[in-house]
C-alpha cells in the first residue's frame, strides 16, 4: 500500500459556484486524487491544508529548541516543536507528496515556505557532518516522490520560456525537497490565469491530460 500526503497551499478555496474564482492548483490536485483513487483505491491519504491553516513561522526560541539535545529540552521547548514533529511525521509516512500551490510573486506562498521551514530540521530530516567537507548536509529519509501541481497568473515559466528566470517556485521546491528524501519530482503547471482567455483554458486542459502519463511514471516507483 502506498501512502500519499496531499498538501494544498493556496489561500483560495474551491469555489463550486464559479470555478474561475477558485483555486486552480486545488482543482488540479483534486483531479489527480480522484484518478489515483480510481486506479489505487486501497492507498492511504494524509491531508494538510496550509492555505486554511498556515503553520507558524519559526522563531529564535524554535531554533534554540531544535539545537537543544532531545533529553535536555524543557516542556516549553517540546511544545514549540510539537507542530514540527507532527508535520515531519506526516512526511515520514508518505511515499508520495502531492503538493498543490499557486505562484505568488514568482515564488512560494508564505504558508508553504513556513511548512518547509518547519519540516526541514536538523537530526530529523537531515544530518550535518563536517567530515563531508563542503557538503555537510545530507537527507535522512529517502525514496520519496513529489508531484508539484501549480498555477501561475502569467506564462512562460517553463524551461526556455520568456519568464524562465523569474520562476522561483518549482526550482526552489526541487532544491529543498531533496532534504525530505524526495528523489523523483514531477510537475504540471497551469498558466495564463490572469489573462482568462483561451490560452488559459488550453493550459488547464494540457495539465489535466498530463495526469495520466504522470501516474504511469509514478506507479512503478511505488507499487
Descriptive report:
The protein has helices at 24-39, 60-66, 75-80, 82-93, 110-119, 170-177, 198-209, 211-222, and strands spanning 3-8, 44-49, 96-102, 126-128, 137-139, 144-151, 182-190. By secondary structure, the protein is an alpha/beta fold. It has a single domain, classed as Rossmann fold, CATH 3.40.50. Strands 2-1-3-6-7 form a five-stranded parallel sheet, with helices on both faces. The radius of gyration is 18 Å and the shape is globular. It starts with a strand and ends with a helix. Homodimer. FMN binds at residues 10, 23-25. Belongs to the azoreductase type 1 family.
CATH top level class name:
Alpha Beta
Helix fraction? Answer: 25-40%
Summarize model confidence as the mean pLDDT. Answer: 95
Beta-strand residue percentage: 15-25%
Poorly predicted segments? none
Shape by Cα distribution? globular
Listing every helix as H and every strand as E from the N terminus to the C terminus, the arrangement reads EHEHHHEHEEEHEHH
CATH homologous superfamily identity? Flavodoxin domain
What's the main sheet like? 5 strands, parallel
**Estimated structural class:** alpha/beta
Helices, by number, come to 8
- Specify the CATH architecture: 3-Layer(aba) Sandwich
Radius of gyration: 18 Å
Count of domains: 1
CATH fold-level topology: Rossmann fold
EC number: 1.6.5.-, 1.7.1.17
Subunit structure: Homodimer.
Cofactor: FMN
GO molecular function: electron transfer activity; FMN binding; oxidoreductase activity, acting on NAD(P)H as acceptor; oxidoreductase activity, acting on NAD(P)H, quinone or similar compound as acceptor
